[in-house]
Specification:
Mean pLDDT: 78
Distance between the termini: 22 Å
Structural class: mainly alpha
Helix content: 55-70%
Strand order of the largest sheet: 1-2
Strand content: under 5%
Number of helices: 11
CATH architecture: Alpha/alpha barrel
CATH superfamily: Mitochondrial carrier domain
Oligomer: single chain
Order of helices and strands: HHHHHHHHHEEHH
CATH class: Mainly Alpha
Largest sheet: 2 strands, antiparallel
Number of strands: 2
CATH topology: Mitochondrial carrier fold
Shape: globular
């Protein structure tokens, strides 16, 4: 399906509506992300069947606001998501134009192949994680802290950057995040686009036989194409939902290792002389000169200590936390694009 170019959108509407949308999505996910991270570092037992009961227990002991310990900086995730989509749209435009130029003029009226969307989705993670990685380090410290006196995001930021790793500690887990989200988003976008276009093409071929010339002309309209918009909604929901669940399961080991390393970067956890991880008492561990263990070291330590089951801890709350967001990435973002396009057309009097 053809979609408006990034250059066709009203930028203030695009960024404002998109940031609000994805900030709201992040707020929805906050309790599940908090529970997921606490399960991953062993603070809360991993019980997939009792996800909501565990959340209720946290709310009773720490208050409802305890479920939203990093909610005050949720807007950072919204901005990061919009940077992601800006890079995504630019890459799609560049690669799509390259494919069109190589295939001839008629290809300009058709959408780019699915691999273009996959490459754009995977590569955009490199950009978004430049902002998201520091947010994730700070939010991890806030979320795994069970102290009654809650730290502020600014206090955690200062504490993390004053450690042995300095400012670089804020990007702990950046490479593992890209390694996780790159393939995850690439697969999600490529499969979703391929299935969506296949269904649209099939449905339009049937309508070309049954419909009139006026209906065909309406279907081929680039803007205001209600038939195509209605047709692609269900495939988007199904493919993005199923794809996100599979991707979350496959990348769960990387996510667990990244959470442990982020906890260490924020001085919430440490590794003793035997190579075992321990929680810093009261988050007041004295800073030492030790270096951050590699992802492989953390992976092998976890495997030796807890077995393979440790790498699926927090899987259920992670699905609750991220599946709605991943579905919103496709369905909600298309709405943001359409709105931004209509605003620009309205301002230009089109």
């Amino acid at each position: 399906m053809l979609s408006p170019s990034f250059h066709d959108l009203d930028k203030p509407t695009y960024y404002t509506c998109g940031t609000i949308l994805f900030t709201a999505t992040n707020l929805w996910a906050q309790p599940f992300i908090l529970l997921k991270k606490r399960q991953q570092v062993g603070l809360v037992r991993d019980s997939p069947s009792a996800t909501f009961r565990l959340l209720l227990d946290i709310a009773k002991s720490e208050g409802v606001s305890g479920l939203f310990r990093s909610g005050g900086i949720a807007w950072v995730a919204g901005i990061s998501r919009m940077n992601y989509f800006t890079a995504y749209e630019i890459i799609v435009d560049v690669l799509g134009g390259y494919v069109s130029n190589n295939k001839g003029e008629e290809s300009k009226a058709t959408p780019p192949p699915a691999w273009v969307f996959g490459v754009a989705g995977g590569a955009s993670s490199l950009v978004s994680q430049l902002i998201m990685a520091p947010y994730s380090v700070v939010s991890t410290r806030l979320q795994i802290s069970t102290a009654s006196t809650r730290e502020t995001a600014l206090a955690v930021l200062k504490d993390v950057t004053s450690g042995p790793g300095g400012v670089r500690s804020l990007w702990t887990g950046y490479l593992s995040a890209v390694a996780q989200l790159g393939p995850q988003h690439a697969t999600m976008w490529a499969v979703s686009s391929w299935l969506r276009d296949a269904i649209v093409t099939h449905q339009l071929s049937i309508n070309d036989i049954r419909g009139s010339e006026e209906e065909e002309h309406a279907r081929d309209s680039r803007c205001g194409n209600d038939a195509k918009q209605q047709l692609v909604l269900i495939p988007r929901l199904i493919t993005s939902g199923c794809g996100s669940i599979v991707a979350i399961f496959v990348t769960s080991p990387i996510e667990v290792v990244r959470t442990h390393r982020q906890a260490m970067a924020s001085n919430a956890m440490s590794i003793d002389s035997n190579g075992s991880e321990t929680m810093a008492s009261g988050l007041d561990k004295k800073r030492g000169g030790g270096s951050m263990p590699s992802s492989w070291t953390v992976f092998t330590n976890l495997y030796r200590r807890d077995g393979p089951g440790v790498f699926v801890r927090g899987l259920v709350p992670r699905c609750y936390a991220h599946c709605p967001g991943m579905i919103t990435m496709i369905v909600g973002y298309e709405y943001v694009k359409d709105l931004a396009l209509h605003v620009r057309q309205w301002r230009q009097g089109e």
